[in-house]
Amino acid sequence: MAPEHRIRADVVVFGGGIAGLWALAQAVAAGHDAILLENQSLGYGQSRQAQGIIHGGGKYALRGVGDVAAMRAIRDMPARWRSHLSGEAEPDLSAATTLSSVCHLWLPRGSWRARLESWGMVPVLTSANVLASRPRKLARSEWPSPLDTSAVAVMQMDEPVLDTRSVLSALATPLLNRVFAYQGPGEDDTQSDAAVQFMRRDDIWNEVHVRPAADERPVAIEAGAFVLAAGRGNAALLSRADVDPSIMQTRPLRMVMLRGNLPKMYGHCVFGGKTRITITSATMSDGSTCWQLGGEIAEAGVDDESMKQTLRRTKSELARCLPGFSLSGLRIASYRAVRAEAKDPQNRRPSGVHLERVGANAWVVWPTKWALAPLLAEEIVAQLPAPAVPAVGADRAMAQFGFPVPELAPFPWEEARWIDVD
Ligand SMILES: Cc1cc2nc3c(=O)[nH]c(=O)nc-3n(C[C@H](O)[C@H](O)[C@H](O)COP(=O)(O)OP(=O)(O)OC[C@H]3O[C@@H](n4cnc5c(N)ncnc54)[C@H](O)[C@@H]3O)c2cc1C
What we know:
Layout: E1 5-14, H1 18-29, E2 34-38, H2 58-62, H3 68-74, H4 77-85, E3 98-100, E4 103-108, H5 112-119, H6 121-127, E5 136-137, E6 151-157, E7 161-162, H7 164-172, E8 179-181, E9 196-201, E10 204-210, E11 219-228, H8 234-240, E12 248-260, E13 267-271, E14 274-283, E15 289-294, H9 296-299, H10 307-321, E16 331-342, E17 354-359, E18 362-366, H11 373-383, H12 394-400, H13 412-415, E19 419-420
Parallel strand pairs: 1-2, 1-11, 2-8, 4-13, 11-18
Antiparallel strand pairs: 3-7, 4-6, 5-6, 9-10, 10-11, 12-15, 12-16, 13-14, 14-15, 16-19, 17-18
Helix pairs in contact: 1-7, 1-11
This protein binds flavin-adenine dinucleotide.
Flavin-adenine dinucleotide (FAD) binds at residues 14-20, 37-40, 42-47, 49-53, 55, 184-185, 187, 229-233, 236-237, 253, 255, 294, 337, 339, 366-371.
C-alpha cells in the first residue's frame, strides 16, 4: 500500500532497549533530528531481563578467563556509568536507582582448587592494566549474611548493580517526544512485508514505510541514517532490507527466580573456571525479595523444562554454591530469555560491542552487554553523517501522524507464574 504521508528525519533508530535508547540520546545531544521506533514496549527484549551488573572485568579475572579484549573493553564501564548516575555526564541518569554499589564474588566451601586456580590470574591481569580495580578480599565480618556459612572466601568488586527499568526510564523520559511505537514485525517474523518496508537504491537506504497501527496506511520516513538496535528483532529487520540475517547469533537461557523472605544479594559464585550462579535481587510489589539466578544455572535446562526439573536443578546448584541455604518457604518461577549478539565464526560468546555497516548509511548493532551501551552509542554517533540544518522536525511530524508513545516493559518477575518450593 502506498504511503499516505512523508516525514524526514536525520536518523531512525529501531529498538528501544538500552542500546537504542542510549544511541538516540547521544545522537540528539550531537544535534541530530533523530527518532526511535519500537514495536513492543521499551526494553521488552533482553534489557528488562538483564541483571543490571555494570561489569568491570573482575568476574572474568577471577574465573581465570584470559580474554584480554573483553576485559579491556569493559574495564572502564563502572567509572563511566557512575559519571552518568551522578548526573555529571550526559545522558543524565541521576533519576535511576542503584541497587548496590558493589558486587560480590565468592568461592563456596569445598572449592580450594578453584580458589588457587583463579586467584593466580588477578595479579597478572592487574599488572597488564586490564582490570579497573583489583577485587578486594573481605574480612569475614564484612561478608553478606547468606555467605556466612557457605563461602570460604568473599571478594568485593566496585561494580554497581542497577535497577534496569529505572535506567531505561531515566534515558527515555527526556526523549519521549522522539520515541514512537509502530506495528513492527514479530521477533521471529522474517517473512511478511506488511509491517515494515525498507526502500533502497543500491547501497543507500532511502526510506522506510511503517504504520502507527495495523489498520492504518503506512507513513514513509526518509532518513539520512538507519540504526538497527532491535536486539533479537534485528534479524527480522535485516531480512526486510535483503541483508542476510545470519550475521546474528542467539543463545537461549532459562533464568530462575526465587521469591520470599530473602536477604538482598548481588554476586557471583565462581568455581571450576565458571560463573556457576549470579544472584541479583529485586523488591516485589508485596515487599518480598526476588532473587534472579543467572550464570551457568541459566545456560542449562533451556529446553522445555518442567518446573519440577527446574526446581531439582536449582536445589542441587544452590547446595553447591550456597551450602546450608534452605529454600523452604520460598516460591520459584523461571522464564526463557534469548541473548542476541553478532555472529561469532566459532559460535563463541563475543566480547566487545558490535557495529556493522549494512548499507552506505545503515548499521546493525549489538552491545553484547548492557554495561557496554555507552561505548556502543559513542561508536554509532561517530559514524553518522552531519545533522541537517535547520532541524527537520521529525518528532512533531510523527506525533501528528498518530504514532503513539510506547510503554516501559514490565520486569519478568512481575509477570511470572510462581509455585511453592515445598
Ligand atoms: C537474563 C539476562 C541477564 C543479563 N544480565 C546482564 C548484566 O547483568 N550485565 C550486562 O552488562 N549485560 C547483561 N545482559 C546482556 C544485556 O541484557 C544485553 O546485552 C542488552 O540488554 C541488549 O540490549 P539491546 O538494546 O541491544 O537489545 P534488547 O534489550 O533485546 O532490546 C531490543 C528492543 O528492540 C525492540 N524490537 C524488537 N524488534 C523490533 C522491531 N522490529 N522494530 C523495533 N523494535 C524492535 C524490542 O522490543 C526491545 O525493546 C543480560 C542478558 C540477559 C538475557
